[in-house]
Design brief:
single chain; 125 residues; mainly alpha; 0% strand; flat
Amino acid sequence: MLVVRQAQLDAFKALKRDQFVRETAKHLRTHFAEEVGHMDGEALERFVRDGIARAARHDVTSERDVARFIDLMVAIRPDFDALPAVQAVRDYLTYPGVTGTNRVDKFYDMVRAGRFDRELEESWM
């Protein structure tokens, strides 16, 4: 019988998270080169790790949704989720039946509706 200890599971999760951080940093360098060009590799990985933590506060945990959330951090600004525009839909974003995917979709809907236009005009770099 195969026994997997918690320490082994934790180590696997850490490896998986590190891989996600590296892949996301590479994605940002490719698709947001101008926006993240001022960051060295270590700073960019810290930015991604911060994004993972910020996304988790909204129960956004799937890799795809976390990556989309981090894209918004770059496109709008790192603390976009604390802006007044987001506060206006806080009830929706914290409702128990709303999934992480629904939450990220709502953020993208807000971008399309122009709710972040002023922030998009200002540079956070």
